[in-house]
Amino acid sequence: MKADITGIGWITAAGVGRGRNHHGFALPAGRLPDYTPEKFFTEPYPNLRRMDAYSRLGVTAIALTLEDAGLDTWTEKRDIGMVVATVYGCLGADVDFYNTVIPNHGAQARPAVFSYTSANSFLGEAAIRFGLTGTNYAVAEQHPTGLAGLLAALGHLAAGDDQKIIGGVCDVGCPEIFGWPDKFPPGAVFFMLEPVGTNPRPSFGTLHSTSPGQLLFDGSPLDDLAVLVDQCLSNQAS
Amino acid sequence: MNMIRSKSKNELRQTIVTEAVAVTALGSNLEDLWYKLMQKETAIKPIKRFPVDREHYRSRIAAIIDDLRPSQGRSLLIDLLDRLMDQMGPVPADAILVAATLKSGIDNLESECRGKPTGFQDIRLASLADNLGARLGLKGNGTCISASCASSAIALARGAALIESGQAEAVLVCCADIVSEYAFSGFSSLKALAPDPCRPFDRNRQGLSLGEGAAALLLMSNTRAEHEGRARLGTVCGWGITNDANHITAPVRGGAGLARAVNKALTSARKKPDEIAAVCAHGTGTVYNDRMELDAFKQVFHKRRLPIFSVKGAIGHTLGAAGGIETALGLKVLATNTAPPTIGFVNPEDGAQGLVSADQQAIAGDFLLTTNSGFGGINAALVLGR
Lengths: 238, 386
Hints:
- The structure holds 2 protein chains of 2 kinds.
- By secondary structure, chain A is of the alpha+beta class.
- Chain A has helices spanning 47-50, 53-68, 91-101, 111-114, 121-130, 148-158, 225-237; strands at residues 2-12, 15-18, 80-85, 136-141, 164-171, 187-194, 205-211, 214-217, 220-222.
- In chain A, helix 2 (53-68) crosses helix 5.
- The longest helix of chain A is centred in the N-terminal third of the chain and has 16 residues, at 53-68.
- The radius of gyration of chain A is 17 Å and the shape is globular.
- In chain B, 30% of the residues lie in helices and 21% in strands.
- In chain B, helix 5 (151-164) crosses helix 11 (322-336).
- The longest helix of chain B has 15 residues, at 287-301.
- The two termini of chain B are 29 Å apart.
- Mean pLDDT of chain B is 95; it is low at 6-10.
């Protein structure tokens, strides 16, 4: 089970970037930058304004990833999948929605907010925007490593479920109402995975898995998402 | 590219379902559920769990487990899991846990929003895996899949893929969702709830009825199952997952996305449409979903008349748990050669005549198709075998 990494896109507290135009990456704790999502889309994208912060973050990072892989333009829908690992998912939208339910016992419940209360909703938005018709879902780990999305994506690619697939993480932090300390840095990082040698663009390296929970990058064991990005950027520079 | 599916079938490992348990409002276990389903009973009735006597609610009903109770500030999900896992036999310590839910312990989020702190432990998406992993003493890092109403169908696909690829010998797939004011208000705000018990594939259907439930299915490789002398309830032969890429909450008209998922599942299972004996449809009772499904099935099966059924008129729409519960029931269908009645089905929607029935239907064949679709444009299809 092997795949080339052909594109990377991210938005973290350290900044916004993609693999082929950046040489530095970090996934620190802290606030996400005040990025303007609209500027990452070549055509007007009014849906962005309707989305919750988690969805906006995820869709924008996926846009960066597709651009990095040279797959951002399309005329026909494509068999490209997406798997996102998340800790908090759409909890922010959940709180926002239920706060529209409480007054007047649901009479003011807002369907536009409810639409984004599934952890996979933003993948649907990305699917619509970029014509991606493959496998897509959100996955949460008991012990978050940030790698579950990549592992699952690699599995689907190997099983022949999808021709290409995006895997990564997306989180905007825990809503303050829960008073739960943020143990996981906010941000979205996605990788485009393709069968080895199928994208004319140079690969950032090869991802490989031989057992559940075990990822290898260019043959070396991997247990940290940030390290993977660093190694990809290092490969690109050399 | 197609590394696994390029192998010949006899090189592949089979995914055997060795145990299946379920809890729903219609039955405290799978046998009870199956019996009542065949007796044409429904669990959909007036809601008492939260106030629904408001004029803005078009519906006041759901399939709720009456005596489900929260304990010590924990979510109702915990009581549901207690009832589910009490039925479950031994789970191998090396089993990989793949849980599935749409909203996890959403009742505790409701409490938090109302200023009644309950703690965060049942609210996180991974909490279902946390709870099950701790109960069962599983060693691995369990995951929880969330993909709207296709969550557990996708979890089963993921579990089967882990086994077929040789990455796992045993996988426990467990799914659960509860009826909450949160979900009720949400679907109500989308005008998706039916005022009367839902009527899948009926011309006069008016929407869905919510339900709650849970299921657990133990998957094993054929060699491991044989070695341990486990029961063989059936097999997960193939799967297909697609996105409509069309609308965030509504299915694509014409059913192209679901048809693609079904065709992927058939390809994955190496089966032809003619080999499918019956279809356990998502069949929510919403105008658009049921129309979309009939159109999709017509694209795959053409004019062939095979039994199509939905169980949601009996147990409601159990959201992320739907695919798991329906797979457990699907194995009963294959074991008994009988498709259950579609409760609430009276006047056939165009294209449902001769396919969907208010009565049980005999089936002939060894393979069953199950389908689920949901928010975000997701579609999932599984091919189950004997």
